[in-house]
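Entry 12.
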Amino acid sequence: MLDDRCQRSNLSSCLSRHSHAESPRHSRAGGDDGFLYFGFLLILTFLLLFSSPTRAFISDPITTDQNSVRLLVGNQSDNKIELGIEFKLQPGWKVYWRTPGDVGMPITANWQGSENLSNPQIIWPAPKRFNEYDIESFGYHDYLLLPIKAETTPGRPVTINLHLSYAICKEICIIEEHDFHTMIQAGAKDDQANNLIAQAETLVPGNNAGISIVDSSLKKSGKDAEIIVKAVSRSALQEPDLIVEGPADFRFVKGAVKFSADKKEAVFTIPVISQISDKNFTGGNLTLTLVDGKYSLEKKITLGPKTKHKKTDSAEFGLIIILAFIGGLILNLMPCVLPVLSIKLLGILKQGGKSKAHVRSAFLSSTAGILFSFLFLAAIISLLKKLGMAVGWGFHFQEPLFIIFLFVILLIFSANLFGLFEINIPRWLDRFVNKRHHEENEKFSHFMSGALATLLATPCSAPFLGTAISFALSQGTIEIFVIFYFIGAGLAAPYIIFAFFPSLVAKLPRPGKWMVKVKYIMGLLLVATIIWLLLILSAQLGMDAAAGIGFSALFFYLIFFFTKRTHAKTRYLVRLLTILLVIIVAGYFALFPNIAANKNADGFWQEFKRDRISEEVAAGNIVLVDVTANWCLTCKANELRVFDKSDVREELIRQKIVPLRADWTNRNPAIRDYLESHHRFGIPFNVVYGPHAPQGIALSELLSKAELLQAIDKAR
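Predicted 3D structure (tokens):
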């Protein structure tokens, strides 16, 4: 049984020290028989020359009475190498997690003296909670393999010097220390080690199995504090356990958990106990680890005292509605509007010379298409929230299949604008369909153009829009629908103005030959949009996929051009097969992507790691975070206008700013959680951190050099 000193983490008074070192085995050729010695060397040379690939490394186990430990070195890929530390523990013994709890000490690895091995990081599998005599700890029993990811320089051998230290406990606690030394040749591979490491990585907490944390808050009553966390799952939860890591001055003990009737929802109440009598918990950065059997999830959050939404009083909600409308209106002026410029202009120009009633009907139909699209997005977001999934503004652009859908639609639209085909109604059908049906078809066409314009124009945020979206996504279904409706109304405001004042458009000249040139220009704008979509796909699926889909588009244009004067039936069949071919090619690359490593091309921006922000700020440095995506045209505008300017870049380097870029082109839970911690659900999002701004200074969506430098001065 643990004595009181061990239980309270004063290990030095009760720990015995064991030190072990792995000694390499040596073999020596003996005897005086030169022939045998020569034959041995010949065989050894043959094996070295012709055995391929070179094997990596699994060490001999270091065995004690309590456990056995060995080092595994898996495969090397590009500049990455995977390692593992394997523990086989005797019954009753346990080792500890990165946060051991009330007793114990975590496993630590010192790599000093290693060569061509940088930034080794332990990837911790989900731990188990131990409770003995009301003393809580977190760790592992029976078997543990710790995956480790590190960086290397390709083509060079790797020398590993590992000093391992850890506490292993049963009735008593013992400090174990082991040393491992080995050298791994470049390109070494070991399937056995790699498979063991890969199996261990499946036990690392991740966003898997439909289990997720959807809400968290801090509840205070005087000096007492509780953390309230809500989790949901697609299937019934079994025995979920929530582990909270936070400031060292506080303990986060196991609390109560309440389940819904189907056990797909759970609400945890975690008491916070101060280790210092006069210190109160007021919130901060926390890490939540939710474990339920073989499934686990990790999420970083930032908590403050719970601010109850005062049932969103009418004045506050009215202000949010106004901001939503203004944000939607400003969206018409944002760079995101560029892909739909041709659709908007054609919608206006086609009404030249038409009657006021016809103009009003056309623009009201387009308005209906915009509003319908926003309500459709609201329905999708509400449904995903009900399923426990996290969503954000522009989330649909993170799906390659959606991008491909837009790609095919715009390909057909552009071909129509270039005059490569016309959708003609057969004569017999034209005689059958009366004028009313023609008008309804035209209304539907305007409706669909409005809907398509919405889908293309909503991957980016805008001033006032971010506030409205953040409020909506933190509320219920009704609030989401109302706010999205008014965002759509703002975006549709120009159409509404033309609908109420049709004389503004009716005086335009009737469509004639001049419209042919205009259509060609609009077609080129759509081609530019198609190229933009290909650039997004190159980041999501890889350059090979984007090139393949791009060549299929070129093939599409050529077929439509050369079949323009062929027999009608042949033309329809060939063109239909061409469209199907484009869809098959694009679908193949979407389902079987070959994504290369997304590396920083210009060498200026560094990879975003949330933990690094606090580390750099603690060291007195200024950190600039840029959350961007290839599908965010406002983000690209900020890059061209500010970040990529030589004078701005030189100033950031001169002031030794630490630039971190978070690429949200593809789904990334870590980036999503970071945005949510700032109550943001869309991008662009830029923040400056520093000693005088540890919580960060958020910048506006349309960034300027002056604003950026002013924020840096304020944060310093």
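Annotation: The domain at 212-303 is CATH 2.60.40 (Immunoglobulin-like). Residues 356-386 form the longest helix (31 residues).
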